[in-house]
Amino acid sequence: xxxxxxxxxxxxxxxxxxxxxxxxxxxxxxxxxxxxxxxxxxxxxxxxxxxxxxxxxxxxxxxxxxxxxxxxxxxxxxxxxxxxxxxxxxxxxxxxxxxxxxxxxxxxxxxxxxxxxxxxxxxxxxxxxxxxxxxxxxxxxxxxxxxxxxxxxxxxxxxxxxxxxxxxxxxxxxxxxxxxxxxxxxxxxxxxxxxxxxxxxxxxxxxxxxxxxxxxxxxxxxxxxxxxxxxxxxxxxxxxxxxxxxxxxxxxxxxxxxxxxxxxxxxxxxxxxxxxxxxxxxxxxxxxxxxxxxxxx
Length: 297
What we know:
Elements (H helix, E strand, L loop, with lengths): L1 E5 L4 H17 L4 E6 L4 H4 L5 E6 L9 H8 L6 E4 L14 E3 L7 H8 L14 H10 L5 E5 L11 H13 L7 E4 L5 H13 L4 E2 L6 H9 L3 E5 L2 H8 L4 E5 L4 H4 L6 E5 L10 H15 L3
Parallel strand pairs: 1-2, 1-4, 2-3, 4-5, 6-7, 6-9, 7-8, 9-10, 10-11
């Protein structure tokens, strides 16, 4: 059995789609998978079990990035094509069954679950290899850790750096995370480094992992953290999928559609249209409530 899975260019949406793949892995034990995604999302899938081929679609003018995928996909009859992008490609390749995304109200994982008629929808997962876990173990100090994600792909989603610092100091001053060291995560590139720089400067004991990790390595690091606090971003979704207690910080983006999906998650929502409208006190209250439910008494 062969399944073609067409997923997102963006890390966050790609992570959210892993719940569908995990469901198919569990319910179709004989299946082999071809996954098509964008370049930045490639790392979400490289450790996936039974992955026969990973096709990375580089953006091209006039939609020409679809042509290599169509050329590969049209050369065989698939048992199932799952297309979370709702593209025309899924109707142009031979398949015994197709399941195509149709946008609807509600959380993104509910929309994804509806593709295969799954209610409740499956939660996202992460896949790591022994070498990813070994690198995480080598990078992380002993003791409690709080992972911080102070960056995002749009500055309108970024909580002020000084508030990340104040929140971490409050969390590490008392309670289950007393004495916790901060672990600062960000993607590659100068913009990500610049957004993280003020937090790193104010927390000199922080573990600086900005731009240093592949996505599977980041998932392994997050698994070893007691809490993740971050802006609405792919990293936030990765943390939730890894099973880390995850607090997502929301302002102008719709939390009802993109809140973190995982076993232990919460959000802190700004009281106005801007991230500056989210206070440290509100984020601290949400974090403390999340920790209380995620950490056994």
